[in-house]
Each structure stands twice: as structure tokens, then as C-alpha cells.
Amino acid sequence: MRGIRPVTVTRNSQWLRPDASRVVTQLFVPGQEGFELRESRAGKVLTRILDLNETQVLAALDDVIVRCGGRHRSLIDTFRRHAAELADRLAAGSKLSEARMLLLGAVFTNEYAIEGAALCNPSIVVHPDQSGTRAGGVRIVMSVRGIGEGHRSSIGFRIGTVDEAGAVAIEDPAPFASAGANVPTLLDVDVFRGELASVRGAGEASDYVLDSLGEQFTRADLEERLEQLQQHRSTRRHAPTAIALIRAIADRAYGVEFAAETALSERVLWPATSAEAAGMEDARFVRFVDDDGAVTYYATYTAYSGSRISQQLLSTTDFRSFTSVPMVGRAAANKGLALFPRRIQGRFAAMSRSDRESNTVAFSDHPAVWTSSLPCQEPSQPWEALQLGNCGPPIETVDGWLVLTHGVGPMRTYRIGAILLDLDDPTRVLGRLTDPLLSAADDERDGYVPNVVYSCGGLVHADTLVLPFGVGDAAIRIATVPLPELLVALRA
């Protein structure tokens, strides 16, 4: 189990660097930028737009379309949508010209550079569409973490290929970046019960609500039952607390839909709830194959509110429609939970870091509810003295589950290691590398966060481990490792 044999690691020459020209639009409300607790200045700004003559309106609108129109798929539609947000501030019967309405929408719109600060923490999975792929090769989807102004993170995508020899190439992204439309999604009773189980005193009131709703229900169904609880709160002491908690859980569940004409590398998953208002971090994507052969792409990610972290579970089958739901339970309380790509003995399994410093294994009957975990790997080497964690979902090999790990040591230096777990009992460690598999090279030490190499998931193709990794939390590179050589080293 010492893993002392050297392993060949080859870095691809390609660097993926942040592109500050990749921007999405946001509704901008002056006075509510987030750094001052003041009333909106929307009314005063609206008055100024209404006071302009038509010549000024046309000139200002022409200017913004010339400067920004080529950076977005449908900027005019965005202006119309944002102008509609101001409709309640207009006097009854007001009739504005099309140009004035569009200018009004433009004034209440701003651009956000999704990669303005950094691009990092990739994970890769096999693309759901393999049509036209070269024989022996495979098309892949790479998720990326873009970081912009205020350290706000979003999830983006790149497309690439791994050829029959294990060589990797990542394509340039689409010319636009587009956030999807948020849509309602069904709520799951097990998630609510899992989160509320640890809340003292909320049981009776929450049972009153949940017992009548079935396994899945809509937000409207939930609100109707909460209103009934509110009306009968006098006989249920903890009703107000239960109502607030239940709504907070429901607020974290939503869907995202992208237009069919958008390319996958154009799509951006953008923070949609207060729980993730400050960012969606470190998505660990996995191609999950259920016992009946059904394929679902899951991703666990860290939601950051600005003061608190929580974990969310993304799911999709086509990378066009997504759902995001809360992950609950003690084993999901910290960062970095990563799902195994299939059930183990009939149950979902995940790598967890529930104690914040070691690798554990959790089992569950529900992919979003993780109540406990079992010990797996503790820090033992200087380069992992501060903490251990995973670097993405386990990869199934003939010898066992290959788990890429990260270790944090002196000077808060992040390195990537590896362990090998038993296929039937992944709490059983069959082998581990005593030395890091990947450390920052001299030209990889500096960045947004120095001394960090970090991955959120690799894959194996053509007997090659393909390992994308973030460099200094600033850019992305790809390394390849001969799988047979790595397995021998792990079992040495």
C-alpha cells in the first residue's frame, strides 16, 4: 500500500485561461448594488429617461447596441424584459416609444464578466452525444468554475475530445455566454425530512405539512399547506419556526432551461437563490448509470451565500435542462461530496469530507440525503497534514475504485494524490500514493490563489487517466497518466 513507484505524468501543452470578454447580462437596480443598505434610485433614473427627447433616446440606444450588441445572443430581448420590470413605476396609460422602452431596459442592465478574475476547478465526463466522434475516440464535456467581480462563481462548460491514444484537445467556447431561464421544479419530501430531522421542536409542525403532500409536490401545494399551518399556529408552538425552515429549504430547489439554439459551451449556470448568491463553486460532475441502465449526469457543488456554505445537487440528462436541489444530512454538511458513478450493493455512495479533514465514504437510498459516513482515509504524509479531500467522483477500474485526492500541507499548498478502494467495500483502502501524483510546477505556482493544483474530476479512456486541473485557481491545464502504471504504483 505504499505507492512508492514513480508514475509518469504528462502535461498537455494547452492552457485554458479566463476570458474577460465572456459576459452575461443582469438586471441592474441603482442603489441596490449590494454594498449599501439604501432604497432603490430607480424612480429618479426613470424620470431622467422620460425627460430625454427622442433624438437623445435614439442616439443613446444606438450607442449601447453598437458597443454591446455583438457580445450577446439577444440583447434587445433582454432590454425588453428588463424594461418590463419597471412597468409598475410608469403612470397609468403611459405610452413610450419602442426606442425609449429599450433604452430604459438598457439603463437597468449591466454586464458581468463570468471569467473576469479566474477560470479553474474543472471536471470532465463523457458527452451524452457521441455522434460523429472519430473511431476509438470520445467526446467529453468539461465543467469549469468561472470567477468574476466580487469573487462570485458560476458553472460553465467546454467541449473536447480524447483520441484513441489518450491525447486530449479542448475546443474554444462559443462566442456568447448565456444564463438559462429559471423554472419551478418538483420538491422532494425526503429532502425536507432529512433537513428538518435535526431541528429540535419542529417535528410536529413539519409533519403536519409534509404528511399530506406525498413524495413529490409543487411549491404551490406546499404554500397551501403552510397557510393552513399558519391559520392553526396557536396550537402548535413551533409553527412559525417550521414555516420559515420549510420555505428556506424550498427556496433552494429550482430548475434551469436553456434555449435549444444555444451551444453547450455557451451555457452558464448562474446563482439563482440566496443560498448561492455569492457563488456556485467546485462542481463535481459524474455520469451516473443506474441499475436499470438509465443515465443521469449529477454534479455536487458548493453553494455560497456570502456567509454560509451548503451543498447542492445538480441533475441533467442532456445539459440543456437542469434541476438543482439541496443536499442534506451530516455527511453533506461540508464541501466536496462526490458521487460514485453507480450504486454499490443497491445504494448510492459518495466520497465525503464531513469532518473537514479526512476522506470518508457515505451510503444513501437518496442522492440528496446523506445522514452519516464511514472512515476511509486520514492524513498521514506531510503534504496532506492540514486536510484531505477528494478531487472528484471515483473512477471504476478492474482493480478497484480510483479516487483522486487532494492534500493540503505547509504554506497551504494543494497537491493531488490517489487512493484505490475495494469495488464492493469502498471503505477498504487497497492502496495509496505516499507522494503526490501532481504538484504545481514552477510556472504553475502563482495565480489567484498561489500554490494550488486542484481538480473536480477526471476520467479514463484508452488506458489513460485524463486529469484536468486548476492552476493557482486562475487557469486550467490537463495532465494524462498511463492507467496501468498508476494502478501498479498504487498496489506496490
Give a quick rundown of the structure.
This protein is of the alpha+beta class.
Helices and strands in order:
Elements: E1 10-11, E2 23-27, H1 42-51, H2 54-68, H3 75-84, H4 98-107, E3 109-113, E4 118-126, E5 138-147, E6 153-162, E7 168-170, E8 178-179, E9 181-183, E10 187-188, H5 189-196, H6 203-210, E11 216-217, H7 219-231, H8 239-251, E12 254-257, E13 267-268, E14 279-289, E15 295-304, E16 309-316, E17 321-327, E18 338-339, E19 348-352, E20 359-364, E21 373-377, E22 387-390, E23 395-397, E24 400-409, E25 413-421, E26 429-432, E27 453-454, E28 459-461, E29 464-471, E30 475-482, H9 483-491
Parallel strand pairs: 8-13
Antiparallel strand pairs: 1-30, 2-3, 4-5, 5-6, 6-7, 9-12, 10-11, 12-17, 14-15, 15-16, 16-17, 18-19, 19-20, 20-21, 22-24, 23-24, 24-25, 25-26, 27-29, 28-29, 29-30
Descriptive overview:
With 492 residues, the chain is of the alpha+beta class. The protein is 20% helix and 33% strand. A hairpin with a 4-residue loop joins strand 16 (309-316) and strand 17 (321-327). The longest helix is centred in the N-terminal third of the chain and has 15 residues, at 54-68. The model has no long low-confidence stretch (mean pLDDT 94).
